[in-house]
Amino acid sequence: MNREQQFELSRRRLLGAGAALGGLALAGCASTPAGPSIGRVVIVGGGFGGATAARYLKMWGGNVDVTLVERNAGFVSCPISNLVLGGHKKMADITRDYDGLRKLGVKVLQGEVTAVDAAGKKVRLAGGGELPYDRLIVSPGVDFMNDAVGGLQPALDSGRILHSWKAGPQTVALRAQLEAMPDGGVFAMAIPKVPYRCPPGPYERACMVASYFKVAKPRAKVLVLDANPEVQSKKALFEKAFKDHYAGILEYRPNNELKEVSGTSGQMVAKLEFDDVKADVLNVIPPQRAGDIARSAGLVNMNNRWVGVNWQTMESTAVPGIHVLGDATFSAPAMPKSGHMANQHAKVAAAAIIELLQGRPASATPVVMNTCYSFVTARDVIHVASVHQYDATEKTFKPVAGSGGVSAGANQIEGRYALSWAENIWGDMLAV
Ligand SMILES: Cc1cc2nc3c(=O)[nH]c(=O)nc-3n(C[C@H](O)[C@H](O)[C@H](O)COP(=O)(O)OP(=O)(O)OC[C@H]3O[C@@H](n4cnc5c(N)ncnc54)[C@H](O)[C@@H]3O)c2cc1C
Fold first, then answer.
1. Among 87, 102, 179, 220, which residue's Cβ finds the most Cβ atoms within 10 Å?
2. What is the tens place of the pLDDT at every residue in 279-308?
3. pTM of the full structure
4. Longest C-alpha distance within the chain, in Å?
5. Distance 277 CA to ligand 1 centre (A)
6. Cα dist. 264→150, 169, 269 in Å?
7. What CA–CA distance (Å, rounded) separates 221 from 185?
């Protein structure tokens, strides 16, 4: 092997390891030297998956031509948004811009991708323009199956009911509903059956709203209507938090699937299988599926809801040349739909695309990891962590035995870690 071949091999090993390590060790040391473009990558969606992919394609690929299309002007984080509902953080704390990516040379376009022409290798924009690509990344997050609950669509359209499961204007509006709610009123939240984005998110939300009521509206109640038979993440820790901090305020009801909603603002009714629940504020987290563009692009091929991918490259198993990240994917066993995991998917895809654009195979042994922190009070936090290794025989990621785990108990040190985690992952994805 000559020196050039040896250098190339080391660079590719580094890229593979970078995906495995979450890329943290590689900033600045493995970028491809500037030169002619090795290809054009268009990315749909500037959330956890899409923004991370844009950054790492630039950082690891150097001369990849990257265009990111995002419908919103800036990034608003779902992680930490429950603290805004609790009154412990402001929208400005969870909002960032895309200037860091622009400085890296990513072309960031605010707009909507309305169609994908996989045969012609181009996407269509709402304004009528087209963007050609060599490889396409689609990271659209989730959209909602509102038809699954009678009366939900008109209630959401009128703003009487909010999901607040995409951070932004709905977060602000739900906080306003909570502030307007009378002391002695009821806040009810409906959780859909799994899989949904962020398994611990609803239980964190219940704690954050209860923490607000405890101080500001001590006679108000939080009623958690869970379609699932039990708490879906960090069960014992959440149950302890419900008991230790919110006894008499928060009531958890498993096996309570929402069937229908009715009522007017301030007097909503949630119809369950056996009874009706009246609520001053009704927050419905609807059942979810891959974002609309994944569906219209013909990428949805699992349970009519999610996108199957080749986990070594994140390339769709339905449409070649399109890589799908994050919540939209059909999750591997025990893999959560989380921002952290979307960030990891993006690094696997970025490393793979850089290789594929140059006619080389992707890393055969990717490893990804996840940590989800949840606030149970304004300061006390619990976490769950896991590591997932690609299994060549089963062609999927599998949890690594003995890795990860959960907190021994809620504590304030993890409260500081959680806020640092958020700042670090926003920095990692947005180069801020
Ligand atoms: C309340 C709550 C709390 C959470 N807490 C945590 C947490 O603590 N830790 C954690 O890891 N995860 C958490 N999550 C989950 C996390 O937010 C998601 O898993 C993550 O956002 C998924 O990333 P993604 O790239 O798949 O989608 P997103 O981050 O949602 O990004 C999708 C982007 O695509 C854009 N888009 C979609 N379609 C188009 C189109 N056609 N054209 C242009 N743009 C488009 C959207 O505007 C959006 O910006 C939480 C979620 C919620 C709701």
1. 220
2. 999 999 999 999 999 999 999 999 999 999
3. 0.93
4. 77
5. 30
6. 15, 21, 9
7. 6
